Amino acid sequence: MQFQVQEEGGFRFIDEGKGDTLLLLHGLFGALSNWDGVINGFRGRYRVVIPVLPIYEMPAREANLEGILSFVEQFVAFKNLRDLSLLGNSLGGHVALMYVLKNPEQVKSLVLTGSSGLFENGMGGSFPRRGSYDFVSERVAYTFYDPKVATKELIDEVFQTTSSIPKCMSIVGIAKSAQRHNLNKELHKINVPTLLVWGLNDTITPAHVAHEFNRLIAHSELHFIDKCCHAPMMEHPEKFNDIVQPFLEKYALVEIA
Description:
By secondary structure, this protein is α/β, with parallel strands linked by helices. It has one domain (6-119, 181-250): 3-Layer(aba) Sandwich (Rossmann fold). It is 39% helix and 18% strand. The chain is built from 9 helices and 8 strands. Strand 1 and strand 2 (11-16) form a beta hairpin. The longest helix is centred in the C-terminal third of the chain and has 16 residues, at 165-180. It is globular. The mean pLDDT is 89.
């Protein structure tokens, strides 16, 4: 992590740059550092805001997507954000879709990458196995086309998280909530311009999932990045940014109805 995490109003977040607002939402095992390449690429022209989602702090009984959506709504209101370009990876994409469906007037454009919401192979088909470093290492590497992207620092971070029983319970609760909350019958309601950036070799939300999102979301365009798995913004940040930049510019002046 190379950017300062601010704390204000009970929220922890990164807020870098000035201009139109890009609100970034990380995934279930994600961290703010997942977006370093995007921050570096866009903070010179945009205001890049990333909240720490309360995935690990939620009580097990309240650990669900609705709770995370409510948190994002509270954060947006607290920071007085509007005319958003909303970017979400994996579970963050799922929450972004829910946010757009509930608050379409707030969102100018939507970018999804490896999003859940239709189908996801969570943790490579398994829930986290507490206390097994080898298992965590294997599952983190499974997220990337090039296992070298799964650095020891990243593996250690996930291992520490999954070594906590309360955090594990929250992770399982949220993962099951995501599996139950299928958006297949809701996506036709999304009218904001939508960009889908997918790893061609995604093992968690495979290519056919991207095609289905593209079919169901009317105003969407789909791009694949080869030799890339579930987190294109981490594996190929320059290619990811090169796809996202013209999309954002195209809709920068679009007025929200």
